[in-house]
Structure formats: C-alpha cells, structure tokens
Write a structure and sequence with these properties.
Length: 362
C-alpha cells in the first residue's frame, strides 16, 4: 500500500491535508484533533458505504466519547436553508458542546453544509473534512469556504470556517460514479488553467490513466491540486485578492446551476462549460489566443465534460444571476479571465454586452 502524502495549509489556522488509501479506518488519524464528542454528517449515497467504518474507527480510538451521526439526502438540492435547519436541529438534539467535532463525510455538498453547520453552531465548533468525491478531495474540502445555495444564487449564504484537518481516503474513489469522477477533473483542470500550464501538459499526458481510475495518477492529481489550492488560500484566506482566481469559470457556471434550479448540470460540469466561456470571453477581449481556448476545450472534452451551455437557457436570466455573483461590485461584473493557459487574472468592469455575446454563442 502506498504511503500517504500530506500537504500543509499555513496561515492563522494551519492544518494538514492527508491523502492516501485506507485513511477512513485510521482511528488515530481521524481522532487526531478530536477534543470532545464526534458528530458525523454524511449523505444517503455515502453513508451506506463508509459511515460505519468511520464511526467504528472513532469509537475504537476514543472509547469514552459519544460518536453520533446524521444523514442528508444526496444531491445539490440539499445545500439549502431547509436542510441546514435540519442539520442544526440534529446537532442540538445530540447536545453537541463547544469541544465537539463535526466530521463531514461525503462530497462537496456534505462538506459545504456540514462545514457551515459547524461554523454556525455555538458560533463555531471544529470541523474535519473527510472528502469522498474527487471534486471534494481536490477543492471543496480545502480552504474553509462553507455555503448554502438560495433560489436566487449559488453559495449566497455561508462562512469562512477552515477545517481542523482534511483526510482524503483515495480508496473510496473506486465506488465513485464516473460522471462524478469527470466532474472532479474539471476542478483539477482549473488549477492548470489558472496558474500552472505545465500541469495541463501533465493532465494531457495522463488523461487516460485518470479516467481509468489509476491510483497513482489520481493521487498525483489530488496532491498537485491541493498544493495549488493550499498556496492560494494560505496567502488570501478571505478572497480579498488572488483567491478569486479559483473562481475561473464559476461566474458562468454558477449562473447555469442557479438557472437550472440546482437540478441540471452538476457543479464540475457547469464549471467546465464556464471555463470555456471564460476563455472565449478572454479571446473576445483580445487577451488570449483562440488556440488556448481550443486546448482547454479539447482537454475537457477528453474528460467527457460538457463544453457548451445546455440549450434553452435565457441570457437575461443568466446575466441576472451574474449580477448577484459575490465577485460583482458596484462598478459592475468582475470576471476571472486569462492571458493564456496558466495565466489567469481578475478583470473588473466587464461590459455586459461582451458577456451577452459569449452567452449567445452557447
Ligand atoms: N467549498 C468550496 O471551496 C467548494 C469548492 C468546489 C465545489 N464546492 C461545492 O461542492 C458541491 C459539489 O460537490 P461534489 O461534486 O462532491 O458533489 P456531491 O457532494 O453532490 O457528491 C456527488 C454524488 O456522489 C456520491 N458520492 C460521493 N462520494 C462517493 C463515493 N466515494 N462513492 C460513491 N458515491 C459517492 C454522493 O452521494 C452524491 O450523490 C457543490 O455544491 C459546489 O458548490 C465547494
Ligand atoms: O475556494 C475557492 O475560493 C473557490 O472559489 C473554489 C470553487 O471551486 C468553489 O466552487 C467555491 O465554492 C466557489 O465559491 P464562491 O465564493 O464563488 O461561491
Ligand atoms: Zn468550484
């Protein structure tokens, strides 16, 4: 069995991301930061597969402690105020005190909702992220953004609440549906697109291995992605500057998810479409060559991801959602554009006519 890798996230609230097979059975690692009771939040897709292993490992490690759990329905629709209310009620019923830890066992939906519940309960208790999707391992479990969706927009309610630890058990990726694996690869491609063109070369060379679920290729992609995310969130934890680069493709992608009522494209798919649209916007503005858009599009297509918006979406409605994007300012829309592969930047004051033109092309 390969040795776990670790990535350190520095800053005021440092923690370690540990990546490797079998971590969900490692009671010592799971309980490493545990001070009081444990409360595992999962979803009804993940819980039947992995919940018992986590609760057993924690109970074995800390025999005197309570290990309770609560499960939400799988899917983006659960990242709602209503489900958040249910999570808080479950935490209250379990009588969690300030020294308790919430364990978020699942994909980004569980991570965002459980993380926000941990941030809100008694004004903040510890949270340990146990990501089980590729997307959660490379992105959502790291950096402390927690959130809920509203009908008016994605992630509009939330808090920055860094985890105490992130444990990514790569063995669980074997049960991940292929659509979810592909969605995770979209966020992996994002790191290459924004800051690391050499990583894009590597992804092009290892695309088949990644799609086949090759353990070594996946571990390398996860570790490199986490190292990029760690470096960015360490220097800008609250998104006052550079952290916004992680939003490449998200202004377009979030608008699609919102307009589809969180029941159409899944997040990684919407980000794939959004990154191509962001590249096309950059091209329209004369910032980057068409060859870079084509390269990005080809790689995403190779990963089986959509690269055009679903038909029938209303441009006015999409623009309306973009005006409520968290990067928007009184001066107008701000987009993450690129000057070419690996060179993204924040661009304020983007004219809506340019965005409309991109949307009109699909
Ligand atoms: N906080 C952040 O920084 C951040 C970053 C990126 C994305 N996100 C959020 O993450 C969410 C998307 O997360 P996601 O893509 O992980 O989707 P998800 O959480 O909806 O999980 C996808 C599906 O896979 C199932 N599943 C999870 N792990 C499995 C496994 N190992 N085996 C079998 N089935 C498994 C789940 O039950 C679910 O049905 C979005 O809400 C997005 O906004 C947040
Ligand atoms: O961590 C970040 O910062 C990101 O932007 C990562 C994104 O992949 C993620 O989808 C995030 O939830 C988007 O945040 P938001 O602030 O645009 O809601
Ligand atoms: Zn994202």
């Amino acid at each position: 069995m390969s040795q776990p890798r670790s990535v350190a996230v520095g800053g005021d609230h440092p923690y370690t991301i540990t990546i490797g097979p079998g971590l969900l059975d490692d009671g010592a690692l799971l309980a490493g930061t545990l001070r009081g009771d444990a409360f595992v939040i999962s979803d009804d897709g993940v819980a039947p597969l992995y919940l018992q292993r986590v609760t057993d490992a924690l109970s074995r490690e800390r025999p005197g402690r309570r290990v309770a759990h609560w499960t939400l329905p799988a899917g983006e629709a659960s990242k709602s105020l209503a489900t958040f209310g249910e999570a808080i009620a479950a935490i209250a019923d379990a009588g969690l005190r300030r020294d308790a830890t919430v364990y978020a066992l699942g994909g980004g939906v569980v991570g965002d909702l459980a993380g926000f519940a941990a941030a809100a309960w008694m004004r903040g208790i510890d949270c340990v992220q146990l990501p089980t999707t590729l997307l959660a391992m490379v992105d959502s479990s790291v950096g402390g953004k927690t959130a809920l969706d509203l009908p008016q927009g994605k992630n509009l309610v939330g808090a920055f609440h860094p985890p105490r630890a992130v444990l990514a058990d790569t063995a669980v990726l074997r049960s991940l549906p292929v659509r979810e694996l592909r969605a995770g690869l979209a966020e992996v491609v994002k790191y290459g697109a924004i800051v690391d063109a050499a990583f894009l070369d590597w992804l092009e060379a290892h695309a088949d291995a990644l799609l086949a679920g090759d353990d070594a290729a996946l571990a390398e992609a996860i570790a490199r992605s986490c190292a990029h995310k760690a470096a960015i969130v360490e220097r800008d934890p609250f998104e006052h500057g550079d952290r916004a680069l992680l939003n490449f493709g998200h202004t377009f992608g979030h608008a699609i998810e919102t307009e589809q009522g969180y029941g159409g494209l899944i997040h990684g798919e919407a980000v794939a479409v959004g990154m191509v649209q962001a590249a096309r916007l950059s091209e329209r503005l004369g910032l980057a060559p068409a060859s870079d858009t084509a390269r990005l599009r080809t790689l995403l297509e190779r990963f089986g991801l959509p690269v055009c918006a679903p038909p029938g979406l209303d441009s006015d409605a999409l623009l309306g959602h973009m005006r409520l994007d968290k990067k928007a300012q009184s001066g107008g829309l701000r987009f993450i554009v690129w000057d070419g592969a690996g060179r993204a930047r924040v661009l304020p004051g983007v004219a809506e006519s340019e965005v409309r033109a991109v949307l009109a092309e699909g």
